[in-house]
Structure formats: structure tokens, C-alpha cells
Amino acid sequence: MSQKGFTLIELMITLVVLAVLIGLAAPNLSQLLRDNRATAELNTFAGMLNYARREAVQGAQTVRLEGPLVADGSWQVLRDRDSLELRRFAPLSSFVVDPAGQQSILFDVQGRLVSAAKVTFDLVVKDSSIACTVFNRSISIELSGAISLKKAGC
Question: Which of 55, 108, 125, 144 shows the smallest number of beta carbons within 10 Å?
Fold first, then answer.
């Protein structure tokens, strides 16, 4: 008479193999989640810049992006002539912006950067246990207003 089903030994071996696979995958999964959070925040920062530039062109007005604000770390897009707030963005939680301190970036009516030189921001991840070569990013704003993203070193 043949038996159907699994023996206790087969079940135990299956559970051990499954536990080993989960143990190998868990660190990679947490690294992937951290990388996704950092990438999402980087895209949010680039979105802030693009929003400010688009508002300047569409409204035919000079627009200013300011932040991080001292009160709560948020960023805001303001109409330059009367400081009317057009939009407020949440604070960056994964990154700190270098140079430190409050920044003010102006875009003119043609979406160009109002500055004497190209502006570069380095976004540095706050968690020092994460390999910096993986997460640090640099955002450059050309005089034309074009935004470029690239990986930055330590």
C-alpha cells in the first residue's frame, strides 16, 4: 500500500531550505527598499525644481524655490514679485542638501536660472551606515534651467 503526502523529514528539509533563502534575500531586500526611498526623494527634489521652472514659464513671472525652511524643513515655491506661495513641498527625509542652510533658486520668465553661474546641489544621505557611493547624488542646474542628475562620490 503506497502512502500519499510528505514525511516529517521532507517537510523539515523544505523549511530549512526556505529559511536559508529568506536569510540570503532579506539584506538585499532592505538595501533595495532604501535605494527606492532615496531615488523617490531625489525625484521629488528634481520635481520641485521642474515645478518652479514650469510655473515661471507658464505664468511669465520670476519664481523662487526656497528651502529647507527653518521651521519645518519644507520647501516652497514663491512668486518673486510679491512672495505669494504657489506650492509647498514636504521636507526631505532621506537626504540633506549640501551646501547647508536655506537656498533660494530663481527662474526667470523663460525658465532660465537667475544666477551668475551654474548651481550644483549635492544630496547626501543621512544614514551613515549606507554606502555613500550607492546613494549620494548631485543635482546641477544649468544657466538654461536644465536639470541634470548624477551619482556623486563620498
Answer: 144
In this structure, is residue 12 part of a structural domain? no
Domain extent for 108: 28-151
Q: What's the whole-model pTM score?
A: 0.73
Determine, yes or no, domain membership for 33.
Answer: yes
CATH at 42: 3.55.40.10
> In this predicted model, what pLDDT tens digit does every residue of 6-52 receive, in sequence order?
788 999 999 999 999 888 877 778 778 877 877 888 888 889 999 99
